[in-house]
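Exercise 7. Predict the structure of Glucan endo-1,3-beta-glucosidase-like from Coffea arabica.
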Amino acid sequence: MRIYAPDHEVLNALRGTNIELLVDVANEDIQSIATNPSAAANWVQNNIKNYSPAVKFRYIAVGNEVSLSSSIAQYVGPAMERIQSALASAGLQNQIKVSTSIAGNLLSVSYPPSQGSFSNEARPFIKPIINLLVQNNAPLLVNVYPYFSYIGDPVNIHLDYALFTSQGTVVQDGSFGYRNIFDAILDAHYSALDKEGGSNVNIVVSETGWPSDGNPPAASSGNAGTYYRNVISHVKSGQGTPRRPGRGIETYLFAMFDENQKPGAETERHFGLFFPNQQSKYRISFN
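Solution. The predicted structure, encoded as tokens:
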């Protein structure tokens, strides 16, 4: 499970459940943690140590999709270092990995996947983060959305390539063949990591999903149900991606519930597996 801030009511509910948790340092807290020596220690004490081991923390994401143009971008790496040090002081550094969650727009090249590379603008932001991940054997968290790739370029990216329903190879990239864009996005990021000294860094998909409404015909219950069922099957299959075969792909579905009061595009209110009244939207199995 992933939560985007350490909500104590949620943390108390998770005690003793054995559910592994990815918890975010909220974007608005990053600067203070990076600049205030006691802030990281207090954050770890109040939100992690006070609940561990009853709550099974797996990752801490220092920020979610922090924009390169944001005033806090420069503080993400230093805040990660502070949180890592605070975990070490608490004796939790071997149990919980520290990372940050990025969007796909940090790549300047994503096609073909073998040419994936971080943009010149992103490199000063991401390179110190990659160094930290390598040093601490932590994964990079990436939000992967074939839906947005498809609606952004429906002429060249076909719906079956986005929904895992292609009957054969769609993109041939040297010796690697791609039948779905999910794998292509991941491998573009692996290629970018390789170029920055992060060849041993694993990727965890910290968000993926498809909206059920708000932008027909792409956003529909039928397409969303197909996507969720197929992505679950794919990441659990152990196939991996063409560049990283033979392994499961740790993946977090976005989101559990429709956020019916969320601002922005109408589709943003329809990514849930459940309606706000807790009624299930799809027949989905994780077994």
